[in-house]
Amino acid sequence: MIRDRLLLEVNSELVQLYPRAGASIIHEHVEESVEPEPGPSVEELNLPEDLRRTLLKAGISRLYKFQYEAFENILNGFNTVIVAGTGTGKTEAFLIPILVDVHRNPSPLPRAVVTYPTKALSRDQLARLHKYLVFGKVSAGVYDGDTPVEDRRRMRSQPPAVLITNPDMIHVGLVRSPAIKMFVDRAKFFVVDELHVYEGVLGTHLKYIVDRVKLAREGGLQFIASSGTLSNPKEFAESIFGVDVVVVKGPSRRRGGAVHALVSTGYLSRWTITAALSSILAKKGVKHIVFVDSQQMAELVARIGRSFGAEVVVHRAGLPPEERRRVEEKLKSGEVLAVAATPTLELGIDIGDLDAVVMSSPPPSFTKYVQRAGRAGRRGRPGYVFTILADDPIDSYYERYPTQFFSQDIPQSVIEPSNIEVAKVHLLAHLLEKGRVHLDSLPPVWRRAVDLLIEQGLAYTRGYYAYPRRRLAIGFLEEYSSIRSGGPIVEVYDEATGELVGYRELPQALLDLYPGAVYFIQTKPYVSLGVDIEKRAAYVKRLDKDVDYYTKPLYTVDVVDYEVLDERVSERNIPLTYANVELEIAVEGYVVKNAFDDRSGEKYWFDTPLHYSYPTKAVLVKYPTIEEWDRLGHAEAFHAIEHSLISAARIVCGAGLTDMGGVSYPSGDIVIYDAAPGGSGLARLLFERFEKAEEIAHDIVSSCDCEDGCPRCIYSPFCGNNNQVLSRRKAAYYLTGLLAGKLVEHGKPLEARYGKPIA
User: Fold this and answer.
1) What is the set of domains in the chain, with CATH numbers?
2) pTM confidence score
């Protein structure tokens, strides 16, 4: 039952807009405001007088209990992780003890290096820090790629007590910048804010950057981190910092209430209803962000939104930084009321008051849901959070069990420390820093990375030492200077003007920019002329008129090689393997799809498929075949099970829509892999929780009432063969027998596979 007035109005307009479609708000959840438990007053603390007066002037007369616990732990020298909800004062929890230390230990060198995941957030936080700084005694400054040359020169000669930067700058700076080396070598505190952001490949990069920082100095570094959403803060922080940490927990919920709504699309596409909802909110003067998990879907939502008469602008990765900053300023000033964004606006960049958040689909994990939801109503007002549920297996699951959506646990955050693709980047950087490194001093992953660097001609060994081939190594690091991409970056150029108009990383670039692909840039349609993988460049041509369709690639994925890392037999006697795998993607053509209802149109096939290979991590599964079924029957069942397992991983592992992929074989071999080159850690998590994923997969295929497959159960928008060779009924029959213990397999995954792989 809907009680909130705004929800009632929005629901009424949505139903009137499409009276026969069945689109409506189906569930309301009210989140009450929570006030953290109070702690001691500022007067009770042993603070320097200047700092005490500064805090009182800033409106802080008392610490919360969790802030005081962090205060005590940090000043007593413990590596500390602070976990508390949005708007509860995590920044003050680590900043106040650092400022006490700065007052007690004045130094001409930085006392703390504080890292934020983005440049924009660094500058927002500097403005926040300034109100706590005592003029003339404590200074702070941002040192990153956007800092003017004159400011950098001044900060090198007169370093601030609190230096704000980002991991990317430290990664590059340890090789190229004596100033960065000096900052991290002399600082006492190393702070990572928004720690939850660093899961997967980005977290693995951070782990290696931290390792390099520790190798660049002689110990004595104290680590501090904060996060609003971590279910395993101790384990996750220790996997990155490599030291014991203590955890301080504040209230897990936000400070400030919110009204949450689940919205069913009926028989229309999620993009149509997302855009319609955005236009309704904009016309009511509700400032909001629409979150999507795909760059091109952000463009699509903005285009459809404009057809409803609402101005929707796009904020996403792959756009030039100055374009993103323009969008942020327009939203902050109220010049625009609706922005379609990828996770680029997920963090706490100051965009002013925000009334609502619209999520075009349930986010990759409940962690991201909480983070995105926290953007709305952060300044003493309740926020509104709308989540679109469409024809999708997980959406349908939550439509059946709406209360479970809001009561679910935050999944564990993980990294994959043995990602050899990440390890080789940082080992090469370390070789350039040191000149040479003794082989016996390297941990096992770095030792394997040496062999890979030698094979690629980037390093060599002489005696017991490894050396970089400097010219080639520097060129390689220039190409891989970003820690944000999972693979090599492809630059996208306008064929007519030669202008650089965007970026895309491999292997996704191949799936977005094949010849004939429709590619949107700030809602303007282009057609791709193809990708030059060797030159890392793609060229697009502006279309003369708007289009009401988009394209999806038709492709296959095959496992060309694998190395077993771990094995086990599941509770249902199914052999499971966690492995390094070498995947080959072959894009064979594409299909044209209607933008408003996702119906498929004509297919186009290439004379010669486009190929790209890359390493990653995967779960390998070997299911037994059924004697009565032929090869086609097995292919239909196992392909459907593969799709449902990937869907289940979204709940079990917190995987995003594109974080994992899969391939199945008629022989009963299924491979679920990390989409990120080298691995993200999600496949490892799935390997450990596979039984739970099978149970959810069974629920997905057995609860749907379709004939034999539909978007609500086994159809996937990312299926490489356009959802062909699928059978929900066979998958349900098979998994029912499996869960009942009627199927047993004694072979090993991929040992006797046969048949064409189906992605």
Assistant:
1) 5-31+257-390 (3.40.50.300), 38-249 (3.40.50.300), 489-547 (no CATH), 553-739 (3.30.1360)
2) 0.80
